[in-house]
Amino acid sequence: GSGSSIDGSIVNSGTIAGNNIAIDIRGGGNTIDTSIPGSPTIVLGSPVIQGDITNDVGGAIIGRTGTGTGFGTGTAIYVSGSSIGGSITNSGTIAGGIDLNNGSTVTGGITNNLGGTISRSGSNAAVMLSTSTVGSITNAGTIVSDYVGIGLAGGTTPSLGVLPSSVTGAISNSGTIIGGSNGIYLSSSTAGSISNSGTIGGRDGAV
Asked: What pLDDT, in 10s, does the model give residues 121-131?
């Protein structure tokens, strides 16, 4: 929804399916401050979801089951200009990926547990951050996409400078991350560290 808030969490153990987007969170009050030339920053509003988004074992979040169109088409969890106070945790199936953009934040992390799968088709990352920030990304399951498994992209303009996407902690993998081009791809973005004890792969390299 837009302009609304949830004081607790969203927990799914069944099926959430969207004609266009399964879980759509927009306009929570986060803004991008461009008042200082060359140094854009994210200004946090109140969290739209105070707690977590959790997809339990056996749960399915499916981004597209119909013919909907528009921004975020086919995304399972779409967050734009909004903040989540807790974490996003998956132990089931997320078909359509996770997309954070336009100055969105997840205070905790994005975690895909053992047995969990996050997938996305087409030219999109399975876990995508565009000018957004999360605390950490941890994978013990499977993250797979036709394009990139985990993608971080910053925004760049000559007048405003670079607003990176950021993982303030670690990207940690003990499972499988596979992308059509790269397993993990960073563009004008930062991560505290990347650690791997599993498999990261792609046509153009792991990272």
From this structure: 988 899 999 99
